[in-house]
């Protein structure tokens, strides 16, 4: 497999003319602001340096751009909502960035199948709203839903706050239209629930981070809307109490969410001034759980379980929403964390283990972090109900970004060795991109990574699709 060449200056003018012929002159951007905007995601580890940004409107236009890139051996970086946290959408070496911003339409709704066909540039929240208008529900949800795009969600197999009940993005994808790295258009599974005709190729593109090709359309399954959602926020004395609370509720109630955050995370949200403290009792940790309170008996059960947890000493205090507005405010205690810690340039770890191992795993990771960063603020939060934790180390004001990141990287080996010990993942839902690439071996062994490389050769023989992401060629 040949590595793609960086775009040389002498090729640029001819290339721009050919790209303009495909998508129109106004849809090709080379100015500095455009390249900096569409050439990066939410990570701050790498400086963007794309050559050109292209805005196709159809699968066929994407295909034409990919074929042109193959002809000239120029790398391509797909770009969605650019909310990624692993540098999977950062273009650092003169790439063509293919933005899917224009490909944001609902193509077809099939009510009998409870399925919608959409272009990959549709914003997650836009898809959620469309589903609601049809009396249905798209349950994959997270803090960046207002700006993330479905294609990026598919590329990282995004999870979020409802996984405990509804699963990851993969569970909702019934079919994909993709342009492979060779420039072929594949229409995979075509929305069917039952299709026993060999390899399910659509699943290879879910979580592939654009390294095999570009998703341009998707058939998405929808479900019924949840009713009368209730939210409980509980103050917890220690890590060890979290799992007993989860087990107590799950034995009697189907939860739609079970989230976790520490006092540091809560305080950052409170400091922003958009929401108040849930109760006065000081607590080192908090859990937020959600369930459908359609029947009085279910709500009564929840209160009974809460009282039991209090008696056991697992809960110090708690509050349950009585209105939809109260439920939304309680959710903001969890959902506003990423936004409110962003000014502190957090060094993020997105790790997961089996739920069974969570208490011991957290204890070991917390000891590693405390020993190595006694003076840093540590911000814990995550989707603990499915074993996914977000460990955020906040940058002190007296350190530069590079100094801070260098210090944080010192203990990565210890953290990821602990992940490996518990057969966990170094990236639960944010992808690998470039920030986790050097640590892939802690979750995937050498033989498995070898198979991944061979798969890439099949779909992208010239190595032009998002090179340098997940693994090196």
TrEMBL record:
Source species, domain of life: Bacteria
Claim: Flavoprotein is one of the keywords in the record: yes
Coiled coil: none
InterPro entries: FAD-bd_oxidored_4_C (IPR004113), FAD-bd_PCMH (IPR016166), FAD-bd_PCMH-like_sf (IPR036318), FAD-bd_PCMH_sub2 (IPR016169), FAD-linked_Oxase-like_C (IPR016164), FAD-oxidored/transferase_4 (IPR051264), Oxid_FAD_bind_N (IPR006094), Vanillyl_alc_oxidase_C-sub2 (IPR016171)
Classification via PROSITE patterns: FAD_PCMH (PS51387)
Cofactor needs: FAD
Stretches assigned to the FAD-binding PCMH-type domain: 46-225
Catalysed reactions, semicolon-separated: (R)-2-hydroxyglutarate + A = 2-oxoglutarate + AH2
Record GO terms (molecular function): (R)-2-hydroxyglutarate dehydrogenase activity; FAD binding; metal ion binding
Enzyme class: oxidoreductase
Transmembrane segment boundaries: none
Keywords on record: FAD, Flavoprotein, Metal-binding, Oxidoreductase, Zinc
GO BP of this protein: respiratory electron transport chain
Gene3D superfamilies registered for this protein in UniProt: 3.30.465.10, 3.30.70.2190, 3.30.70.2740, Vanillyl-alcohol Oxidase, Chain A, domain 4 (1.10.45.10)
This enzyme's EC code(s): 1.1.99.39
Stored Pfam families: FAD-oxidase_C, FAD_binding_4
Subunit structure: Homodimer.
Family: Belongs to the FAD-binding oxidoreductase/transferase type 4 family.
Protein's name according to its UniProt entry: D-2-hydroxyglutarate dehydrogenase
Organism annotation: Alkanindiges illinoisensis
Taxonomy of the source species: Bacteria, Pseudomonadati, Pseudomonadota, Gammaproteobacteria, Moraxellales
């Amino acid at each position: 497999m040949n590595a793609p060449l960086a775009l040389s200056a002498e090729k640029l003018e001819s290339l721009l003319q050919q790209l303009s012929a495909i998508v129109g002159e106004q849809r090709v951007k080379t100015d500095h602001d455009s390249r900096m905007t569409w050439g990066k995601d939410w990570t701050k580890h790498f400086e963007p340096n794309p050559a050109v940004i292209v805005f196709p409107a159809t699968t066929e236009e994407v295909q034409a751009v990919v074929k042109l890139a193959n002809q000239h051996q120029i790398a391509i970086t797909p770009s969605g909502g650019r909310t990624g946290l692993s540098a999977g959408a950062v273009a650092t070496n003169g790439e063509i960035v293919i933005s899917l911003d224009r490909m944001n339409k609902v193509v077809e709704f099939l009510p009998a199948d409870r399925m919608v066909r959409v272009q990959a540039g549709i914003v997650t929240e836009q898809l959620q709203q469309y589903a609601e208008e049809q009396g249905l529900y798209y349950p994959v949800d997270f803090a960046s839903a207002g700006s993330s795009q479905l294609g990026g969600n598919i590329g990282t197999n995004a999870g979020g706050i409802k996984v405990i009940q509804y699963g990851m993005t993969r569970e909702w994808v019934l079919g994909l239209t993709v342009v492979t790295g060779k420039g072929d258009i594949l229409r995979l599974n075509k929305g069917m629930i039952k299709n026993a005709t060999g390899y399910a190729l659509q699943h290879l593109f879910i979580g592939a981070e654009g390294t095999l090709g570009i998703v341009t359309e998707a058939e998405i399954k929808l479900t019924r809307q949840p009713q009368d959602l209730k939210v409980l926020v509980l103050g917890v004395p220690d890590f060890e109490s979290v799992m007993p609370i989860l087990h107590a509720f799950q034995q009697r109630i189907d939860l739609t969410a079970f989230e976790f955050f520490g006092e540091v995370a809560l305080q950052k949200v409170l400091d922003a001034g958009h929401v108040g403290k849930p109760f006065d009792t000081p607590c080192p940790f908090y859990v937020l759980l959600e369930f459908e309170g359609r029947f009085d008996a279910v709500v009564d059960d929840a209160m009974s379980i809460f009282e039991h947890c209090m008696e056991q000493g697992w809960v110090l205090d708690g509050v349950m929403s009585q209105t939809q507005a109260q439920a939304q405010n309680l959710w903001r205690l969890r959902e506003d964390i990423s936004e409110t810690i962003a000014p502190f340039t957090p060094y993020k770890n997105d790790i997961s283990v089996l739920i069974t191992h969570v208490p011991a795993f957290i204890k070991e990771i917390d000891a590693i972090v405390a020993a190595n960063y006694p003076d840093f603020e540590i911000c814990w939060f995550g989707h603990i109900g499915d074993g996914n934790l977000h460990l955020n180390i906040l940058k002190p004001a007296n350190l530069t970004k590079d100094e801070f990141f260098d210090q944080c990287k010192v203990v990565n080996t210890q953290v990821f060795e602990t992940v490996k010990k518990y057969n966990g993942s170094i990236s639960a839902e944010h992808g690998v991109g470039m920030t986790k690439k050097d640590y892939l071996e802690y979750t995937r062994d050498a033989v498995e990574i070898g198979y991944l490389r061979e798969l890439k050769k099949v779909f992208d023989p010239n190595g032009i699709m998002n090179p340098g992401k997940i693994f090196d060629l």
